[in-house]
Automatic annotation (TrEMBL), chain A:
Keywords: Oxidoreductase. GO terms for molecular function: oxidoreductase activity. Residues 39-240 form the Aldehyde dehydrogenase domain. The keyword Oxidoreductase applies. InterPro entries: Ald_DH/histidinol_DH, Ald_DH_N, Aldehyde_DH_dom. Coiled coil: none annotated. It comes from Knoellia remsis. PANTHER family: ALDEHYDE DEHYDROGENASE-RELATED (PTHR11699). Gene3D superfamilies: Aldehyde Dehydrogenase, Chain A, domain 1. This is Aldehyde dehydrogenase family protein.
TrEMBL record, chain B:
It holds the Pfam family Aldedh. The lineage of its organism: Bacteria, Bacillati, Actinomycetota, Actinomycetes, Micrococcales. InterPro entries: Ald_DH/histidinol_DH, Ald_DH_C, Ald_DH_CS_GLU, Ald_DH_N, Aldehyde_DH_dom. This is Aldehyde dehydrogenase (Acceptor). It comes from the Bacteria.
Length: 301, 479
C-alpha cells in the first residue's frame, strides 16, 4: 500500500519565525492550469496576510536593521552566497514548485531555479564592492578630507512580481538586502508557495531573522498600509504589474507622506509591466535603495 | 581700554544697473508675461528694486515648448565637448561679473555682502566650471550603461541662495544634455534674470535655459506640465511632499532637496573656541536661512555651561545690519512672511518653557530683522527642537553619552546634515556612521563644494546635487 505523504502548511515569514496570519485567514492556491482545464490542481491553503501582519513585519524589519546594516560587507556577502548554497541543495523542491506555480516544463523550471540561484551569487559579490564603485574621495577646493559613501536607506517594502514566482522574487529581494536594508515582501497572490520555500532557505542560511519578511496574500489589501507606513523608508512597486486591484500611482502618492524612495514598476505611462527577469541585472535596483553620506574633516598639522 | 567702533564700509551699488521691470526669459529673449506683475523688494530697506512678471500657465507652456524645441533640434544633437564649452563660458562670465552679482544678491536677498561675494557667487561659478568638464565625459561617470538626458527639466529654487541654487540646478542639467525651465523664488528673482543676460552673452542657443518668474502657482504649472520629464526642487518639505504627490503615477522623475533640523554635536574634548566658531557659523550663516543649518546644538553636559557662556560672548560681537556693509555678519531676514514665522516659533519656544536669550543689538528701523537668538533648556518635544525655524535661532540641548547624542540627533523626520566636534578620531567615524544625515561635518560646518554631493535622508528629500552623484538624477541609463 502506498504511503500517505505529509503535506506542508505554508505560513508567513516574519522576524525569522513562521506564523499564521493574525487574521486567521487562508486562501486556496492552485497550480497553473494545464490544457483545457479551468483550474489547476489544489496545492495548499496559503496564509492570507493582513494589515496587522504587514505592521508586525515592519516592526521586525526595523528591529533587524541595525544588526544587518552594521554587519560587515564581507559577512553580508557570505550570507547571500549561503542562500545560493541552500537553494541548490533544495533544487528538486524549488523546481517542482516553480513548475506548479508557473506551468513550466521541467527543463524550463530547472533553468529558472538555476538563474535564481545565480542571481544570489551575483548580488553576493556586490556586497563589498558597490560602495567603492559608487563613492569615494571628493577633491574639494580647500584643506578638507571629503568622502562620499553609500549606505542602506532602511526598511524597504517590496511588491514581488506576480508572474515570476521565484526568479522575479529573488531579483527584487537580493538587491535590497545586499546593501544592508531590511524588507517586507508581499508575494505574488496566485503563486506564493515558492516564496515560502525561499523563506525556509533564508531561515537556514544565516540571514538574521527580520531581514527578510514575507507575506503571502493580496497586494491590493496589504500594499496601501505599507505605502502609508511612517516607519518604512522606501517601496519597490515592481510587483504592481498584473496585481489585481493595485493602483501603483495611488501607492506612490501615499508614499509621499514621509517621502519614501519609490521604485516605480517598469512600463510606460500609467501601464505597469513585469520585466523579463532573465535579463542580466545592472546596479539600478541596488542603487534605488541607497543613501549617499558625505563626511568632511579639516586637514591640519 | 578705548572701544574702537567699526566705521561703515558699504559696498557701492553703482555696479548694478537695474531695469524698472523685467519680463520672462523664454527662447533666448525677454518677453512680456501674461500675468500680473509683482515687486521684488530689498528686505533691508523695503524699497522696491524692480517689477517682475508672474508667469501664467500659458507662459510656462511657452517656456516648456521652447525648451523642448531647443532639446530636440540643438542641445541633444550637440557634442558633449561643445556643451561643456558653453558651460565654461558661463562660468567665466559669472566670474567676470561677480561683483555685480554679489551686490545684486545682497540687495534682493538681504544677505551680507561678505557672504554673497565670498561664498554664493564664487561657488556658483565653480559649479558651472566643474560640470562643464563632465559634459564630454559622462561615459566615465559610473552612471550606468549608455547615459543620456531625460529631455526637458523643470527646476524650482528657493530664496536663500538664489544664484547658487540656480547653478546647482542648471549646470548639471545642461552638462548632461537636458534643457531647462527654471523658476526662481518670488522674493529673489533678480539674479536669475541677470543670469539670463549671461546666457545671452555666452550665445547659449535659445531655449536651452528659460527663466520664468512667479510664485507657487507658477511652480505648480511647471510641476504639472506634461512636457516636463524631470523635476528638481529645493525648498520646504511641505512643498516637496506636494510635488511628490503631484507626480505620483507618472513617469516624471524628481530630485527633492528639502528642510532640515541639523544637530551640531559638541563633545567635552572638543576644541571649544573652534567649536564656538563652528556653532556660530552653523546657525548664523546667511541669517540661518540654510536648510542644513546647525539649528540644534547638542552639547555634552560636562561642558554645556562653558560652551554656552563662550557662545553668548561670541554672539555678542556679531554685527547685524546693512547687508552691503562689508563688516556685517548678519543681514536682513528675507521677507515679512519669514520674519513672522521666526517670531511665531520663538514665541512658541518661550511659551513651551525654554529660556530665551539674544544679543540685544540695535536693529535698523526699516526692513526685516531678527537678533541672533539662543534658547537653552530646550527639550526634544519643544517645537523649536522639532520644526525648521529657518532663521538665526539656536536651540541648545544636552547629552551625556555618545549613544544619547546619536539618539537625540536622529530624533527628527529630517536627515540633511549634522556636525560633530571632538578631537577623538575614532569617535568621529563612529558618530558619522550612526548619524542619519546626508552631509556630516566633523570639526567644521557649512562647507560646500561643487565636487561634494549634497542631499538628505528621510524627509529632507531624495537625490544628491553636486559631484559625480549630482549627475545621476539627470540621466537615463540602460538599453
Amino acid at each position: 500500500m502506498a504511503r500517505l505523504d505529509v503535506k506542508k502548511t505554508y505560513k508567513l515569514y516574519i522576524g525569522g519565525k513562521f506564523p499564521r496570519s493574525e487574521s486567521g485567514r487562508s486562501y486556496e492556491v492552485y497550480a497553473a492550469a494545464k490544457g483545457k482545464a479551468q483550474k489547476g490542481t489544489f496545492l495548499a491553503n496559503a496564509a492570507q496576510g493582513s494589515r496587522k501582519d504587514a505592521r508586525d513585519a515592519v516592526v521586525a524589519a526595523r528591529a533587524a536593521l541595525p544588526g544587518w546594516a552594521g554587519a560587515t560587507a564581507y559577512n553580508r556577502g557570505q550570507v547571500l552566497y549561503r542562500v545560493a548554497e541552500v537553494m541548490e541543495s533544495r533544487r528538486p523542491q524549488l523546481v517542482q514548485e516553480v513548475r506548479d506555480a508557473e506551468g513550466l516544463t521541467a527543463a524550463a523550471a530547472n533553468s529558472v531555479v538555476s538563474q535564481a540561484i545565480d542571481r544570489w551569487v551575483w548580488y553576493a559579490g556586490w556586497s563589498d564592492k558597490f560602495v567603492q564603485v559608487l563613492g569615494g574621495l571628493n577633491p574639494v577646493a580647500g584643506p578638507y578630507f571629503n568622502i562620499s559613501a553609500a549606505e542602506p536607506t532602511g526598511v524597504v517594502a517590496v511588491l514581488a512580481p506576480q508572474e515570476s514566482s521565484l526568479l522575479g522574487l529573488v531579483s527584487v529581494i537580493a538587491p535590497v538586502i545586499v546593501s544592508g536594508n531590511t524588507c517586507v515582501v508581499v508575494t505574488s497572490a496566485e503563486r506564493p508557495l515558492p516564496a515560502i520555500t525561499l523563506a525556509e532557505c533564508l531561515a537556514t542560511s544565516d540571514v538574521p531573522g527580520g531581514v527578510v519578511n514575507i507575506i503571502t496574500g493580496r497586494a491590493a489589501e496589504i500594499a496601501p498600509w505599507l505605502a502609508s507606513h511612517r516607519d518604512v523608508n522606501a517601496i519597490d512597486l515592481s510587483g504592481a504589474a498584473g496585481a489585481d486591484g493595485v493602483d501603483w500611482g495611488a501607492l506612490e502618492e501615499a508614499s509621499a507622506d514621509n517621502l519614501k524612495r519609490v521604485l516605480r514598476p517598469a512600463g510606460t505611462g500609467t501601464a505597469a509591466v513585469e520585466p523579463d527577469w532573465t535579463d542580466t541585472p545592472d546596479l539600478s535596483r541596488l542603487q534605488a535603495f541607497l543613501e549617499t553620506k558625505t563626511v568632511w574633516h579639516p586637514k591640519g598639522r | 581700554m578705548p572701544k574702537f567702533e567699526y566705521a561703515p564700509a558699504p559696498e557701492s551699488t553703482s555696479v548694478v544697473d537695474l531695469e524698472t521691470s523685467y519680463g520672462l526669459f523664454i527662447n533666448g529673449e525677454f518677453v512680456d508675461g501674461h500675468g500680473e506683475s509683482f515687486k521684488s523688494i530689498s528686505p533691508s530697506s523695503e524699497e522696491v528694486l524692480a517689477e517682475v512678471s508672474e508667469a501664467t500657465d500659458a507662459d510656462v507652456d511657452a517656456a516648456v515648448k521652447a525648451a523642448r524645441t531647443a532639446y530636440t533640434r540643438v542641445w541633444s544633437r550637440m557634442s558633449g565637448a561643445d556643451r561643456g564649452k558653453y558651460l565654461y563660458r558661463i562660468a567665466r562670465i559669472l566670474q567676470e561679473r561677480a561683483r555685480e552679482f554679489a551686490v545684486l544678491e545682497s540687495l534682493d536677498n538681504g544677505k551680507p555682502i561678505k557672504e554673497s561675494r565670498d561664498v554664493d557667487i564664487p561657488l556658483a561659478a565653480a559649479h558651472f566650471f566643474y560640470n562643464a568638464g563632465w559634459a564630454d565625459k559622462l561615459e566615465y561617470a559610473s552612471l550606468g550603461a549608455n547615459p543620456r538626458p531625460h529631455g526637458v527639466v523643470g527646476q524650482v529654487i528657493p530664496w536663500n541662495f538664489p544664484l547658487l541654487m540656480l547653478s546647482w540646478k542648471i549646470a548639471p542639467a545642461l552638462a548632461t544634455g537636458n534643457t531647462v525651465v527654471l523658476k526662481p523664488a518670488e522674493t529673489t528673482p533678480l539674479t536669475a534674470l541677470l543670469f539670463a543676460e549671461v546666457c545671452q552673452q555666452a550665445d547659449l542657443p535659445p531655449g536651452v535655459v528659460n527663466i520664468v518668474t512667479g510664485a507657487g502657482a507658477t511652480g505648480q504649472a511647471i510641476v504639472d506640465h506634461p512636457g516636463i520629464d524631470k523635476l528638481a526642487f529645493t525648498g520646504s518639505t511641505g512643498v516637496g511632499k506636494m510635488i511628490a504627490r503631484s507626480i505620483a503615477g507618472t513617469r516624471k522623475k524628481a530630485t527633492l532637496e528639502l528642510g532640515g533640523k541639523a544637530a551640531n554635536i559638541v563633545f567635552d574634548d572638543a576644541p571649544i573656541d573652534q567649536a564656538v566658531e563652528g556653532i556660530v557659523n552653523g546657525i548664523f550663516f546667511n541669517q540661518g536661512h540654510v536648510c542644513c543649518a546647525g539649528s540644534r546644538l547638542l552639547v555634552q553636559e560636562s561642558v554645556a555651561d562653558e560652551v554656552t557662556r563662550r557662545l553668548k560672548r561670541r554672539i555678542g560681537t556679531l554685527r547685524v545690519g546693512d547687508p552691503l556693509d562689508k563688516n556685517t555678519d548678519i543681514g536682513a531676514i528675507n521677507s515679512r512672511a519669514q520674519l513672522d514665522r521666526i517670531i511665531a516659533l520663538t514665541e512658541a519656544g518661550e511659551s513651551e518653557g525654554a529660556e530665551r536669550w539674544d544679543n540685544g543689538c540695535e536693529l535698523p528701523s526699516s526692513g526685516f530683522w531678527f537678533r541672533p537668538t539662543v534658547f537653552t533648556g530646550v527639550t526634544q518635544t519643544h517645537r523649536i527642537a522639532q520644526e525648521e525655524i529657518f532663521g538665526p535661532v539656536l536651540s541648545v540641548l544636552t547629552f551625556r553619552t555618545p549613544q544619547e547624542a546619536v539618539a537625540k540627533a536622529n530624533n527628527t523626520p529630517y536627515g540633511l546634515s549634522a556636525g560633530i566636534w571632538t578631537e577623538k578620531g575614532s569617535r568621529i567615524l563612529w558618530m558619522a556612521d550612526q548619524l542619519k544625515a546626508g552631509v556630516v561635518w566633523a570639526n567644521t560646518f557649512n562647507k560646500f563644494d561643487p565636487t561634494s554631493p549634497f542631499g538628505g535622508y528621510k524627509e529632507s528629500g531624495y537625490g544628491r546635487e553636486g559631484g559625480r552623484h549630482g549627475l545621476e538624477p539627470y540621466v537615463r541609463t540602460g538599453a
